[in-house]
Amino acid sequence: xxxxxxxxxxxxxxxxxxxxxxxxxxxxxxxxxxxxxxxxxxxxxxxxxxxxxxxxxxxxxxxxxxxxxxxxxxxxxxxxxxxxxxxxxxxxxxxxxxxxxxxxxxxxxxxxxxxxxxxxxxxxxxxxxxxxxxxxxxxxxxxxxxxxx
Length: 149
Description:
149 residues, mainly alpha, 77% helix, rod-shaped
């Protein structure tokens, strides 16, 4: 017989209410359920049929749970993925800054920020902007100090 989802839900709810193996009470619960009163597949179930259907659904649910657990174990949590991306961006920025420092000490221009990943580029642009603000402020203070002599 074909079972609809609401029939299986009602069956599982009755088993939860009366306990596994208490098929007579489950059968009476299903027969008195107003939502199932015109569903002959459920109304005509005997105790053996109820037991077999419950066993079948429980095996299916166990398989679903095992599949979900296996999937969860194989996938990295979102926070781990985000942390790994952040670490990769930090390493990328450190390499860029090291290369930029070497080039600037030789009088050359820093490498293009376009070489960085999108995440690293956004953070690096923000850092460079903050650095430029600090440099400008230091130059202003230096000019003021020279004027005091």
